[in-house]
Amino acid sequence: MNYSRALARIAQQSRKLTTTSSCRASRQARIKELQKKFQVDDGQLVHVKGGTFDRLMYHGTLGLCVFALCSCIYTIVDLSFPPKQQ
Questions:
Q1: What's the predicted TM-score (pTM) here?
Q2: Is residue 80 very low, low, confident or very high in pLDDT (cuts 50, 70, 90)?
C-alpha cells in the first residue's frame, strides 16, 4: 500500500515538472538574448560582461591567486635558507 502511494506521489510530481511549449520558447528567447549580450565585441573579457558581480568575482579571484603565489614564494625562500644555529 505504501509503495503504491509513493508511486502515485512521484507520478504527480513528474507531471508538475513538465514544461509547456510557451515556457520553453520564452526560455530559448532569453538564452538568445544572453548570447547576443556576450558575443558583442566591446573589448571586455567574457568573464566580466555579466556586470558588477562578475567583475568583483574576477578581480577577487585574481587577488587570491596573487596572494597564494606570494605565499608559496615566501615559503620556498623561508625553507631554502634555514636559520643559523649557534
A1: 0.56
A2: very high
